[in-house]
Write a structure and sequence with these properties.
By secondary structure, the chain is of the alpha+beta class. It is 19% helix and 38% strand.
């Protein structure tokens, strides 16, 4: 499976995510990008591809995920969610992006463009 192919657009969301990699270990990281199918965070953590995690974003909720890939300065996750939960995530993400745009005015509008695939 090609992990660089994404089925949904990725967006920049100016928030932090809390990663729970096991029951004894959690860390806050800036979101690098997010979509309805996964998220990437900026971190120097090096979990293994396939490791399971919980990702919590205050405005969106808590999601089970699997490590898709690990970069030098980021980790990408694929959400492990059902279709109904994915729809809820997309609705919350849309509301949060609109709120972010209103808070940031025109100067931040470019941040709301989908990131290149």
């Amino acid at each position: 499976m090609d992990h660089d192919r994404r089925d949904l657009p990725r967006w920049h969301l100016s928030e932090e995510a809390t990663l729970i990699l096991d029951s004894d270990y959690d860390v806050r990281c800036p979101l690098r990008d997010i979509s309805g199918s996964g998220a990437a965070v900026t971190t120097d953590l090096k979990p293994e591809a396939g490791d399971e995690a919980i990702i919590y974003v205050r405005s969106l909720g808590r999601f089970r995920a699997k490590v898709a890939r690990v970069g030098d300065d980021h980790v990408a996750f694929r959400f492990l969610i059902e279709d109904e939960r994915q729809i809820i995530l997309l609705e919350r993400l849309e509301r949060r992006l609109l709120q972010q745009e209103q808070e940031g005015g025109q100067a931040k509008g470019a941040d709301l463009e989908p990131l290149a695939h």
